[in-house]
Amino acid sequence: MGAVALRDALPVSEGQQQDAAIRRLAQAQAAEPGALLPILHAIQDQFGYVSESAVPIVAEVLNLSRAEVHGVVSFYHFFRTHAPGKQTLYVCRAEACQSMGSRALEDYARKKLKIDFHETTADGRFSLEPVYCLGNCACSPAVMVDETVYGRVTPQRLDEILE
User: Fold this and answer.
1) Shortest CA distance to 159 belongs to which of 103, 122, 113, 104?
2) Is 30 exposed, middle or buried (0-12, 13-18, 19+ CB in 10 A)?
3) Cα separation of 162 and 103, whole Å?
4) CA neighbours within 13 Å on the CB side: how many for 159?
5) pLDDT recorded at residue 6
6) Is the pLDDT of residue 1 over 90?
7) β-strand 143-145 against 126-131: which pairing, if any?
8) Whole-number Å distance between alpha carbons of 161 and 112
């Protein structure tokens, strides 16, 4: 009884809380056919990314190997394995945007933010991600910050958008 009381009195770390939440998310959908992708999406929706610690938990709940879970996480570019920035800048890389200068805009964004695609600025403010069409082809080149799409973006306009 004393050991139980002592264990219950110990503070639960943030990592332990996150792992417990991941386990609950996985268990809630484990019986569904093809549960792996919905579970990974649920984890990313709740935490912003699929942490390294999530892989063995999901593998155990679904009776999969860690390699199988990691393979899915690393195969799909949508899944992040590190916490994203407070805002995400998406730069369109589709043909219409490329023909209107998006490659130069990509280079400018990388230099301005001092990061590459799939990275986050040191201050945690921005993540930079490629996207392959924003549906704004008539106003190329296009970028999106979080859920707002901007067209006819020049380096100067990108500076204004990111302010």
Assistant:
1) 113
2) middle
3) 18
4) 6
5) 45
6) no
7) unpaired
8) 13
Segment 57-61 shows an average pLDDT of 98
- Give the separation between CA 157 and CA 139, rounded to whole angstroms: 13
The full 3-state SS of the chain, as one line of letters, equals CHHHHHHHHCCCCHHHHHHHHHHHHHHHHCCCCCCHHHHHHHHHHHHCCCCCCHHHHHHHHHCCCHHHHHHHHHHCCCCCCCCCCCEEEEEECCHHHHHCCHHHHHHHHHHHHCCCCCEECCCCCEEEEEECCCCCHHHCCCEEECCEEECCCCHHHHHHHHC
Which residue, chain included where needed, has tokens 């704004």? 136
Taking the CB of residue 100, how many other CB atoms lie within 10 A of it?
Answer: 19
Per-residue pLDDT for 27 more than 90? yes
**What's the pLDDT tens digit per position in 81-115?**
989 999 999 999 999 999 999 999 999 999 999 99
- Looking up tokens 């996480």 gives 73
Place of tokens 């998006």: 102
Q: 113-127, pLDDT tens digit by residue?
A: 999 999 999 999 999
